[in-house]
Design a protein that fits this description.
The protein has seven helices and ten strands. By secondary structure, it is an alpha+beta fold. The radius of gyration is 18 Å and the shape is globular.
């Protein structure tokens, strides 16, 4: 990929404004950019893909998340080339350019009844070990942050790896994979069930923080 190609395409992104949410909800997207489509929305940024640059995506941050953009950029630089994470190709004032990763999230695997193989889980474990070995902290690994790619696992969000503490999210998912998933393997899990578990988990985490 030639750098000038994505730099030229990124100029169109100035027509798009990303607005953050007061309550840590998904960002709001205002405006459009020729050739771009949104392929993901988070609490700090939205991810766009250009129809002529299919190998990369542009993660565009809200004005409130400028510090997080710089932090995530530094994390990708430290991770370097790794089979467990996307590659960083470049940056702009409010965006970073990452490799486009095909695949389906573990969340959608559960919804669609697609089997999650043990190898994908082991890949996440290896990703966490590697992350710790270079002095980073693998946090916020959940069902929507892991892709299944031809039977392998890839982690696609590293925005919290510079923060301290263990949020236990992956440990809880790992426990669920070992002891609950065998009864669900190959079955479709309703979205409302997964969202209810997510809300319960967030409420429990908030309760523990208040008690500290």
């Amino acid at each position: 990929m030639i750098r000038i190609e994505w730099e030229r395409a990124a100029l169109a992104l100035s027509h798009i404004k990303i607005r953050g949410s007061r309550w840590n909800g998904p960002v709001k997207i205002e405006g459009t950019a020729p050739g771009f489509e949104c392929v993901g929305v988070g609490t700090d940024a939205a991810v766009f893909r250009h129809r002529e640059l299919t190998d990369v995506v542009f993660k565009v941050y809200s004005s409130q998340a400028t510090v997080k953009k710089e932090t995530e950029e530094s994390v990708y630089l430290r991770l370097g080339k790794s089979p467990y994470f996307p590659a960083l190709y470049g940056k702009g004032s409010n965006y970073i350019v990452l490799s486009y990763e095909e695949g389906i999230t573990l969340f959608d695997c559960l919804v669609e009844g697609i089997e999650v193989p043990e190898q994908a889980i082991q890949d996440v474990e290896e990703a966490r070990r590697y992350t710790r070995s270079i002095g980073l902290n693998p946090r916020d690994i959940h069902l929507k942050n892991v892709l299944l790619q031809q039977g392998r696992g890839k982690v696609i969000d590293v925005s919290e790896y510079a923060r301290p503490g263990n949020d236990q999210r992956w440990e809880h998912l790992l426990w669920g994979y070992r002891f609950i998933y065998p009864y669900l393997r190959g079955r479709k899990v309703p979205v409302w069930v997964l969202e209810a578990i997510k809300r319960f988990y967030k409420g429990l985490a908030l309760l523990f923080r208040r008690r500290k």
